[in-house]
Amino acid sequence: HAVWALTDFGIRCVIAPSFGDIFASNARKNGLLLIRLPDALCRRLRDEVELSQFAPVTVDLEHRHILLASGEEVGFAVDPDDR
Asked: Is the pLDDT of residue 83 over 80?
């Protein structure tokens, strides 16, 4: 139900250091993109979002990068089947 709740709320991507197997499987089946980044980088992204007063973050799946309000781009890897 967690994936459905997130997608019903309009969330299309979740960025975190790890995900549980069942959550990841459900996310894949329901079109929710999961991006795994190291814990330190996730903390830095959270800090950046807070400093920008929660400005939107853009995830470019085609080019595999996250664009922050500051203009910084953070690259990520994604399973080709999830793309």
From this structure: no
- The pLDDT score that the predictor gives to residue 54 is 82
**Dihedrals φ, ψ of 6, to 5°?**
-65, -45
Mean pLDDT calculated for residue range 51-57:
87
If you write DSSP's letter for every residue of 33-62 in order, what string do you get?
EEEE--HHHHHHHHHHHHHTTS---EEETT
Predicted model pTM: 0.88
Q: CA triplet 37, 32, 70: central angle to 5 degrees?
A: 50
* d(C-alpha 62, C-alpha 16), whole Å: 19
Residue 26 CB neighbours (<10 A): 16
Q: For residue 29, what are the contacts with CB-CB under 8 A and spacing of at least 6?
A: none
